[in-house]
Every structure is written in C-alpha cells, then in structure tokens.
Design brief:
The chain has about 120 residues and is an alpha+beta fold. The chain has three helices and five strands, in the order E-E-E-E-E-H-H-H. Strand 2 and strand 3 (about 30-35) form a beta hairpin.
Length: about 120
C-alpha cells in the first residue's frame, strides 16, 4: 500500500534550481520536493507522497490523519515505529491488540515509545 503522509517542514532551501525541504515525519526526517506547493513555509504541514509535497495541510488535519492511520494500524505496518510515534504525539493511542515495537519479534518492548533509547 502507498500512503501520502503528513509531515512538518523544518527547513527550506534551493538545490540545483529545485525548491527542497527537510520534512519531519515524527522523528524521521526526509528530503522532500516542494515544487508542487511553492507557498510552503517552515512550520507548515504538507501531505507527502514518494518524496513530493502534494498539498499544504493545517496542523489539526495533519494530526487527525496521523491518528486515523495509527488507528488503522498502517503506520507501523508500512513505515516502522517512528510513524507510529508521530501518531502518538498527535494524541492517538495504540490500537487495541497491536503489540508495542519489538514485541512482535520477541524482543523487549520499550515502555516509553518517545524515548530514544535502543
């Protein structure tokens, strides 16, 4: 499954004539092309798909989308725990019956998903 995921713009710069940004997806920072949404500013949220920002998004809509993805269980399935962390930071809880990170592989789960301890 391919998802367009909300992320927050941290930095904007021009690279080789292309407007690019560093975008934070709940702790995972990726380079994103802003050519389709030239109005984007630092601090704005965007819907991003395969490295391209497609649409500006208000913060509440970004948080709602992350909560929905978390409730559906698709963030960790598709992207690993940093995506689930973004949803939790947006106020979503882990869906009932889903194991914490590391539990599915038999490893110890980190009781504090926001800590950066291994």
């Amino acid at each position: 499954m391919c998802l367009a995921v909300p992320g927050r713009v941290l930095e904007i710069e021009e690279r080789d004539g292309t407007r690019m940004a560093q975008v934070d997806f709940g702790g995972v920072v990726k380079d994103v092309c802003l050519e389709y949404v030239p109005e984007m500013k630092v601090g704005d949220y965007a819907i991003v798909h395969v490295g391209f920002a497609l649409q500006r998004l208000d913060e509440e809509s970004a948080r709602q989308t992350l909560r929905l993805f978390e409730n559906l269980g698709v963030l960790e399935e598709e992207f690993g725990d940093p995506w689930g962390r973004a949803a939790r930071e947006a106020g979503a809880e882990r869906p009932a019956g889903t194991p914490p990170p590391g539990a599915a592989q038999g490893g110890p789960a980190n009781p504090d998903p926001l800590s950066h301890q291994p």
